[in-house]
Structure formats: C-alpha cells, structure tokens
Amino acid sequence: MPFRGFVVEPAELAKLAGAFDAAWMAVNSVNTVGGQQQKRARARLAAIILDLWREDPAQALSASAVERFLASDQIN
What is the 3-state secondary structure (H, E, C) of 26-56? Predict the structure, then answer.
C-alpha cells in the first residue's frame, strides 16, 4: 500500500487507494512497469495522486494521475 503513514479519514484513504489501483492498472496497460523500476514508479504514482488530491479532492484522481504520470514519464 503506497499510502502508509498518511493520516486521513478511512473513506478518503479508501478513495486514494482505489484511485491508485485504477491508475496503476491503466499505467500498466499502456506501458508495463516491472523489475527494479516498479517500486519507484508506484511511489511516483502515489505522490502524484496525493498532489492531485491536495489540489482538488473532488477531481477524477485516477484519470488525472495517469495523464500526469505518463506525461512525466515521457520527460524522464
């Protein structure tokens, strides 16, 4: 679980975890991430989701996270 040590209400934590799971599945459907890169990619995706949630908790987190993740992956 990428949100260890993060204090929020259980409903918000479930929302974040669900967004992460959906985004991770979408990222892997576009570009499979495995091996040593997987841990870093999952941490980066979790950080993106947290940033998006802090900006606007009501937005579609998983879709926005996938878009931002893939855009940043093109740069790196």
Answer: HHHHHCCCCCHHHHHHHHHHHHHHHHHHHHC
